[in-house]
Amino acid sequence: MRSQYSKLVHASLYMATMLFFSTATSAHAQETTCGTKRPDPRSVINRGFSDEQIHLNRSGAIPIIAHVFEKNGVAIADDALVDEWIQSAAIHFNFLSAPFEVESIDHFSGEERQELSISESSDLLRKYNGDQRHKVHIIFTVSQPGMCGVTSLPPSTSQGIVVSVNDSCDVSVVLAHELGHFFMLQHTHENVGTEEAEQVSRDQDNCLYKGDGLCDTPADPTLSMNNVNNQCQYHGHAKDQDGKSYDPDTHNLMSYTRESCADRFTADQRTLVEQVYAYLVVDPNKRASNDISLGVKISEVFPNPASGDQPVTIHYQSKGSIRVQAFILDVAGRIVWSKTDVPALDGMGEVVWVPQGNLPSGTYLAVVTTVRGKKANAKTFFYSR
Q1: From edge to edge, which strands make up the β-sheet containing 349-353?
Q2: What angle, rounded to 10 degrees, do the helices at 79-90 and 171-182 form?
Q3: Is the peptide bond before 155 cis (omega within 30 degrees of 0)?
Q4: Which of 56, 125, 129, 135 is most deeply packed, by most CB within 10 A?
C-alpha cells in the first residue's frame, strides 16, 4: 500500500533538482496498494526549492495540517483520532531533530459523494499548498477499495499525503509508510521482477543501484498477508534471479508486510530520512541574514567528461559571501557524494569531488545550493569508470 507519486534517491537527500519516484503497484494482503512515479529529473533540474520546502513553525516543529473528508455531512474521523494517528506515525521518526506537530485540522465536504478519488485529492493538495505553503498537508479520505495511501513528493505544487480511512487499512501504519515516502524512502521490494531488482546475495553495486538503493534492507520479493504469518514470519518460496531464496525483513515499514508487523526503519533508511530532512526542512526563524535573497550558479564542471579517480571541480558563482552545499547525483536521483557548509567568496567559488568506488559510467548531476536551500543550480556531466 502506499504512495502514488513517490520514489527516489538512495542513500541521501533528494537535492535541489529532482524528486522523482518510480512506479510500483503491488497488492498487499487485503489488496492495499501504493503507486509511485518518478518524473524525469530534467524537468526540474533548474528549479529552486524555496516554494516547496517545509518551514519549521515557531515552536521548532514540523507543521502538519490535516484535512478530513466529510461523508454525508459527517467527518470520517474525529479530530482526536486524527491526532492520535499522526502521533502514532510520528513515533517512528523520533530520530529527527524536530518533532511533528499538528498545527490544525479542518474538514472538507464531499457533498453527496461517498469517496474522493486520488486525482481529486491531488487537486486538493495543489490548492492547500497554494493557500498554506511550507507545511506537510495530509488528507484523510475514503478512496477506492484497495488503496490505503499515496504520497506526492516535493518539489511539487501538490506535495503531500493522502490516506484512506477504511477497515482494511491501519491508518497509523499507512501514514508512517507514506511519511517514509515523503522523505524519499522507496519500497523494499522496489523493481522486483525486473533487471533492477536487488539480489539476495549482492555486492555493493547491486544494493546501491538496484531495488531501494539501500544495503541494509534485505532483498524483498513483495511481502503480503499471503506470505507473512501472524508471527511475522515469511513463509513464501520466491527466489531471486540467481535462484536464491528470499529472507526479507517482515518488520520494515517500507514493505508490504502485514501491517501488524510493520514497526521499524533500518539504520540506512533513518540516515536517508535525516539527509532529506536536512535539505527539505528549514527554520525561517534562524535563516542567516545574508541568505535571504542570494543565489548561486554553476559556471563549469571540469573536466567534462571525467574519468577514473580524476578530481572533478565544480566552479560556481554566488551573489554575496555565503555558504553553499554541493552534491553529485546519478540519473536515478541517488546521491553519490555531498559536501555541506562550504564557504564561498563573493562572486566565485569551487568545490572538488574525487570519484571513489565502482561508480558506473554515465551521466551525473552536479548540484550547488545555498545552505538554507533558498536557491539551487545544477549541471550535468559525463563520467567514465
Answers
A1: 296-302, 312-318, 349-353
A2: 50
A3: yes
A4: 125
- Asked if 29 and 258 count as a contact pair (C-beta separation under 8 A), the reply is yes
**Residue in the structure block whose three cell numbers are 528549514:** 282
∠378-382-385 over CA atoms, to 5°? 135
CA-to-CA dists, residue 332 to 14, 74, 212, 271, 371, angstroms: 10, 44, 11, 18, 23
Burial class (CB in 10 A: 0-12, 13-18, 19+), 43: exposed
CA distance 90 to 355: 37
Output the CA–CA distances (angstroms, integers) from residue 280 to 107, 142, 183, in the order listed. 27, 29, 8
DSSP 7-33: ---SSS--GGG-----------TTT-B
Grid coordinates representing 360 are 558506473
- In sequence order, the 6+-apart residues with CB closer than 8 A to the CB of 311 are 352, 353, 354
Q: What DSSP character marks residue 345? A: B
Q: Would you give the end-to-end CA distance of the chain in angstroms?
A: 38
Q: How far apart are CA 289 and CA 316, in angstroms?
A: 21
- Is the CB of residue 248 less than 8 Å from the CB of residue 239? no
| Residue in 366, 383, 372, 371 with CA at minimum distance from that of residue 46 | 366
The region of weakest confidence among 83-92, 207-216, 261-270, 354-363 is 354-363
pLDDT tens track for 22-60? 222 222 333 456 654 433 333 333 333 445 678 889 889
The CA distance from 341 to 110, in Å, is 48
322: nearest Cα among 340, 342, 350: 342
Cell matching residue 230 = 501472524
Global model pTM greater than 0.90: no
Q: Which residue has the cell 528470499?
A: 246
Least Cα distance to 23 among 164, 155, 196, 280 occurs for 196
The cell for 127 is 490548492
Residue 138 CA from chain centroid, whole number: 15
376 against 1, higher pLDDT: 376
CB atoms within 10 A of CB 343: 9
- Please give the grid coordinates belonging to residue 71: 461523508
Cell 474538514: give the residue. Answer: 107
Inter-residue contact 334 to 12 (CB < 8 Å): yes
